[in-house]
Specification:
By secondary structure, the protein is α/β, with parallel strands linked by helices. The chain has three domains: 71 residues, no CATH class; 41 residues, no CATH class; 104 residues, 2-Layer Sandwich (Zincin-like). Helix content is 40%, strand content 26%. It has six helices and eleven strands.
């Protein structure tokens, strides 16, 4: 593949040159990978080069906007149904604070991902404990322990000893989905199956479970894309 370097309006910027049998005119395409000069099969390369030079300023503007947009999407995170902007400060300290619509992270760059993950697991565990205690008291259910697990194949589990476990990535789902998942696992405290009685118990614990169950079925896979 051929490349042309633009350097009139800033740092050298490589543009890939591609010939296409479907192209009727010389054009420029902006992708997530960068800029591409598209030429018809018989187009003169010099003509394409001159056209590219005339569009350098425009190309740099488009590429800059792409970077800003991609970075903006990358630095947002959903926590229990609410979107937060991640604001990271490279620092020797290790602090994370959740504000109205921002997640402020102070730590070294190398610890950013793991620090956020630890914070989210603690946040999730706290929310789950509150939900479990409320459901247990209201429906006379007895459980043993609660833990957060790392498991890509299951969202939750309930052991015969009454131990409840939840996949930490459920923190990226809406609160309603978390409540459904807790109700699901707590229903196993009495029904270690998925019988009609089990689903009736789930409905008793969390009447709005059906829409949350459907959401998790449709969107569960996407929850693994955060912090990946």
């Amino acid at each position: 593949m051929e490349f042309i370097t633009l350097d009139k309006y800033g740092e050298p910027q490589s543009v890939a040159v591609k010939r296409s049998s479907q192209a009727k005119h010389i054009s420029i395409r902006i992708t997530h990978k960068g800029a591409e000069l598209i030429l018809p099969l018989k187009a003169n390369l010099t003509k394409g080069y001159n056209f590219l030079l005339s569009k350098e300023y425009w190309i740099r503007q488009k590429l800059r906007r792409n970077v800003i947009h991609t970075q903006s999407e990358k630095d947002r995170i959903s926590i229990l149904g609410k979107s937060y902007q991640i604001i990271h400060t490279d620092s020797s300290e290790n602090k994370i604070r959740l504000q109205d619509d921002t997640l402020e992270v102070s730590c070294s760059n190398i610890l950013k991902k793991i620090s956020i993950e630890i914070f989210l697991k603690k946040t999730l565990l706290s929310e789950i404990k509150t939900i479990v205690e409320n459901f247990a008291k209201k429906h006379n259910l007895t459980y043993s322990k609660i833990r957060i697990m790392e498991n890509v194949t299951r969202w939750g589990s309930c052991s015969s000893q009454g131990n409840l476990a939840f996949n930490w990535r459920i923190v990226f789902a809406p609160m309603e989905v978390l409540k459904y998942l807790v109700a699901h696992e707590m229903a196993h405290l009495k029904e270690m199956n998925h019988s009609k009685n089990f689903w009736q118990l789930v409905e008793n614990i969390y009447p709005e479970y059906q829409s949350a169950k459907l959401w998790l079925k449709r969107n569960g896979r996407n929850l693994h894309s955060y912090l990946s």
